[in-house]
Structure formats: C-alpha cells, structure tokens
C-alpha cells in the first residue's frame, strides 16, 4: 500500500476499479454491458507435490476474479524456475496442475512467461468478465452487515509448519483441501444476493483485508474470534510460533489500527 500511494493514478471514464481501494482486481468497461476483470498472483511452493502446488496456485489466482463477482475466461502462466536445480518434470507437473484448475473453472490457459530464478515460484494472471453494474468491490460495507467466510483460516500457518516438518498430517490435509477448493460456487451464490462488499482473504490475512474493507467503507468491523472458522490445529501451531513472515509484517502494520481484546490468545 505504501508503494501504491507513490504511483501515478490513471483516470479513464471506463476504469471502474483501479488501485485506489486495494481491491482484489482491476475492472475496465469495454462496452455498456461488458467489463473485463484483471488480476495476477504468484508465490513460492507451499505444498511438497508440484502438481498439487500448481492446482493451489491457480485456485488462488482465480479467487480474486470470483471475489469481484466475475467469471474467469483466460489465464496466463507466470513461472520462475531454478534451471539445473530441479528436474524439468517438476515444471511439467506444476503447469499441468494449474491447467487442471483452470479447466475446472471453465476458462482456458492461453500462454504465459517464464524466467530462470534461484527460487521456484508459480502463479497466473487471470482475465474475467462481468456486467459493469454487477461488480462487487471490497468497499461498500454497511452498518449491520454480517461477514461470511467461505473457507477456514490458517493455511499459511500450517504451510509454514509443514516446511519445518512440524505440521500434523490431518492439518496438512485440511489445509490442502481448502486451498484446492475454488470459490466458484460461493461466487455464484453471491451474485444472486444483495452482497454489499467482498474480498479474497490472502497475503494480508483476515485482519488486513478487513481493514481495507472497513477503511474504504468508513465503518468499523467487529470480529468475534471464537466464531471464526479455523483449520485443524492451526491455532495451536500459531501459539507455538509457526507464524509466517507475512503474519509478522501484518501484525506490525496493524498494530495501531486494530483493537484486540486481552482474552484473545496471540501467537508467538
């Protein structure tokens, strides 16, 4: 967000959603009844199996499109590959996993770009479509609204514990199942109800995305910790210190922006 504030702002009568509110995707109107939705996301492996990692990365990228109330249509692969350090079959399996999720979404992979890098990273740039009048943003929350989470929390913590061989098998299975699940059904249901705002919960965590929604909507969000859905033993792993770097950065950033009751236990 600090970097975005220093970038030039683009003004266009057909630019429906830009960078001003840190939304999940950009939206541009191409005609009165059609707008294109663009988003991109990629990251290092968070599961061991390359095919599963490809699926997870694709499902994650699709989430931004679904959060805007749009339907994904095309996808571009984005790959950083450590040539000479990993077998080329790893790349093949990863790309096939990503393609599988895109096919499930009813979209198509139309190409991509790769570079040689020291660390493996993978993701996708997704383009979707939506009617200009049916775009759902991360702002617009109204007093009295109820927050609905379509997935349990804690995938990042479990993935971090897995890297250190400290994640229980049941937790890894639960996290993987959650990460592989596309939000297509949830998005379809959302489009048929008067939803005021929506956000895909990813790197900024629940509190980070909640802050974006609250700030952009000029409201205060109240989250009841005991009612939040959490993956198997994710809370216990957090208490043991298996927080991700993103968790720690988010905590520092949110320190003076979020009020947390003393009864809520914190991770190390």
What topology emerges from the helices and strands here?
Elements: H1 2-5, E1 15-17, E2 26-31, E3 34-43, H2 50-67, E4 71-81, H3 88-104, E5 108-116, E6 121-130, H4 155-163, H5 169-180, H6 184-191, H7 205-217, H8 234-239, H9 245-254
Parallel strand pairs: 4-5
Antiparallel strand pairs: 1-2, 2-3, 3-6, 4-6
Number of strands: 6
Kindly state the percentage of residues in helix.
25-40%
Number of domains: 2
Shape: globular
By CATH's scheme, which homologous superfamily of the largest domain applies?
PurM-like, N-terminal domain
Q: Helical stretch count?
A: 9
Give a verbal description of the structure.
This protein is an alpha+beta fold and 268 residues long. It has two domains: 1-135, PurM-like, N-terminal domain (60s Ribosomal Protein L30, Chain: A, 2-Layer Sandwich); 137-268, Phosphoribosyl-aminoimidazole Synthetase, Chain A, domain 2 (Alpha-Beta Complex). Helix content is 36%, strand content 18%. A six-stranded mixed β-sheet has the order 1-2-3-6-4-5, with helices on one face. Helix 3 (88-104) links the parallel strand 4 (71-81) and strand 5 (108-116). Helix 4 (155-163) crosses helix 5 and helix 7 runs parallel beside helix 9 (245-254). The longest helix is centred in the N-terminal third of the chain and has 18 residues, at 50-67. 35% of the residues are buried. The model has no long low-confidence stretch (mean pLDDT 94).
